[in-house]
Amino acid sequence: MEYRNAVFIVTEEHACPIYNVGDEFVIHDFTLTVERNKEVCLMLVQEVLKALTGTRPLHPRFTQTGVRRTKFECGGCTGLIRFEYKKENAYSTLQMNLLEVAKKRAKKQLIEEFFGLLREMEIFEPLDDFDLQDLALLMKLQKYPANKVIIEAGELGTHFYVVLAGTVAVVREDNKVIAEIGPGDIFGEMSLLSGELTYPSVYSKTVVQLAALKAKDFKHVLSRYPILQIFFYRVLVNRAQKNTMRSGNISSGMSGELTDINSVELFQLINSGGKTGQVQFVFDNCQAVTLFNEGEIVFCGYGELEGKEAVFSLLAKQKGLFTFQ
User: Fold this and answer.
1) CATH topology of domain 109-243
2) What does the record give under GO molecular function (predicted)?
3) Cα(158)–Cα(151) distance, rounded to whole angstroms?
């Protein structure tokens, strides 16, 4: 029973629905423990049991320093992982204990650096601090220099990102910047939610620091916390609506913010589409309405203003909500 008390690490992964390279699990007196933010796979339990009882063929290999490592394999489902013995569960020297404590302290400090930002985000409000810490443990800190491509259009989405510091730009095929994203904002979720290829591209406008969550962990989080699915569904609908408007289409019931599409662009969409209807605006201190007939403005009222004066005042507004009906 060579491995009755040991730590194993995943060294290879191919389409495994749960584990990533670098994940660890612990064997202690024939009990299997994985990291608290991971589920226990029964297929993995079976493979570990075979390894412990000697019924699973082992694959020895040697490192560059000549240290013998035994590799195990789990491929009982749609995916495959290979894992190997890392170390004994208990540390034999004071130096090893101190090293492990230092590593855990550094990881905890790293999480605490961006935990406060995650806590303030609307998306994570339904999670208590303990659950949010679990989520933070799954995320990896990434840094990019300025003008570096983070997401290339036309590829499968691999990560969900939270911007911790700096600014990233969302860019169309014609190199036009259609949005800038700063600290506390998210991106990368559209492809993961829809299963479609990424679009548009995203690159770092400045030096940026991101918290990245792998696609499989993103799906795990949504499964574990169903309440987050509601928020992401709203995000998916809103983003799809914005993309539709940017493509030159608008239909009854669409709503949004002037920070995403200004009044000039909105009126141009209605005019080019020959739409008939009304746009209602809501601002901090007043409301406005503009009526269209086959794309032409037939009435505009903004507070006490009407006609051209009301239109010109509306075109100058940078913030507010609108609904086209």
Assistant:
1) Jelly Rolls (2.60.120)
2) intracellularly cyclic nucleotide-activated monoatomic cation channel activity; protein-containing complex binding
3) 9
